[in-house]
């Protein structure tokens, strides 16, 4: 799903405004502070469900790799997306 990849890029580039703009209003936090010590590297998409041009919901399971204080790490999540008004939004995720 394209929104998943663009949101990962926003994390990697440190653009919280984009992340908030693509977060569904029902679950979006009031503000988002990114940890500048985390250097995001690769994104592996493990699986997707729905999320096509005629769907209103989609799921992306991913593993995002990072370095923190020069130590490797990763975050794995199953993310839920919702299309509203012709736009996709990140809804929530479960680790």
Please give a structural write-up:
The chain is globular, with a radius of gyration of 13 Å. The protein is α+β, with helices and mostly antiparallel strands. The chain is built from 2 helices and 4 strands, in the order H-H-E-E-E-E. 11% of the residues are buried. The mean pLDDT is 96. The protein has a single domain, classed as Nuclear Transport Factor 2, Chain: A (Roll). Helices cover 19% and strands 49% of the residues. It has helices at residues 2-13, 16-21; strands at 38-50, 57-68, 71-84, 87-94. A 4-stranded antiparallel sheet has the order 1-2-3-4, with helices on one face.
Instruction: Tell me which oligomeric state these chains represent.
Output: single chain
CATH class: Alpha Beta
Rounded to the nearest angstrom, the distance between the terminal CA atoms is 18 Å
**Cα shape:** globular
Mean pLDDT metric: 96
User: Structural class, from secondary structure content?
Assistant: alpha+beta
CATH topology: Nuclear Transport Factor 2, Chain: A
Q: Please, how many domains?
A: 1
Number of strands: 4
- Helix and strand pattern: HHEEEE
Q: Can you count the helices?
A: 2
Could you give a quick summary of the protein structure above?
The longest helix has 12 residues, at 2-13. The relative contact order is 0.22.
Layout of helices and strands:
Blueprint: H1 2-13, H2 16-21, E1 38-50, E2 57-68, E3 71-84, E4 87-94
Antiparallel strand pairs: 1-2, 2-3, 3-4
Which characteristics define this entry?
95 residues, alpha+beta, Nuclear Transport Factor 2, Chain: A, four-stranded antiparallel sheet, globular
